[in-house]
Amino acid sequence: FVHLDTKQVHFFLSPFQLLEKLKERWLHTGLWHNLELVKTVIVEPQGGEKTDFDELLQVYYDAIKYKGEKDGALLVAVCRGKVSEGLDFSDDNARAVITIGIPFPNVKDLQVELKRQYNDQHSKLRGLLPGRQWYEIQAYRALNQALGRCIRHKNDWGALILVDDRFRSNPSRYISGLSKWVRQQIQHHSTFESALESLAEFSKKHQKVIDVSREDRKFIQDSESTLEVTCLKDSSLTYLSEVTSPLAPENPRKDEAKARVHEHQCHKITKSPSLPRGIISRKEGDDPVLF
């Protein structure tokens, strides 16, 4: 998926332990290295200071705006984390969200277990949801929060890829918990190839609309700039330079942003173990993908 025109991708799973285990596995196989050849990869930290998290987010935004040789950014995060519930990623800040599994709370967690028991015991007298229903609602609330990161207004667009066989094998139970606007657009794919083809077509279609819109805006801006210069043709050159200076690129900011992205990439390289050089092929078979 990361090789398509979907330049900004969010990848959600749960919990943090799974994220760390998956990252460790991908570092060992070389897949993580291959991802970093294409995208600037940002991983949501567990805990830590808010300033550290804000710095990582700034690297993500800089990687999108000044991507250089790479094709955008990949943000790896967890459901119920800071990224999935507290932030907006509208427009080009997120064009695809991938979720792995359904983020049910840990059934062995004592608080979860006691809450389910309490609801079961008092559901009739106090009008509480049965324990099982409460448990499922917690999972879908977190899932829907993550899916909604890339659709923030009526003209926004993005691909939602839900990787879990339960959506295909038992749709009447598992799809019903998704938000209505997601349920209405569901497509099932039993192979990676069919999902990839559909996603490529979807991205290409919407990217054309974006490109046309940008060309129209540029034409309007150029027309306004020409009009402004024409009206000021009798003014001094100094005044003309002052009026048109906002049109010049902000090179210092751009250089600072590129430096932040480069520093983040170099820091990860020094911390990563030696990796195999071979390119890891994608998994074949019928891994179901839904989006």
TrEMBL record:
Its EC number is 5.6.2.3. Residues 16-169 form the ATP-dependent helicase C-terminal domain. Pfam families: Helicase_C_2. It catalyses: ATP + H2O = ADP + phosphate + H(+). SMART domains: HELICc2. One of its GO terms (molecular function) is nucleic acid binding. Residues 243-291 are annotated as: Disordered. This is DNA 5'-3' helicase.
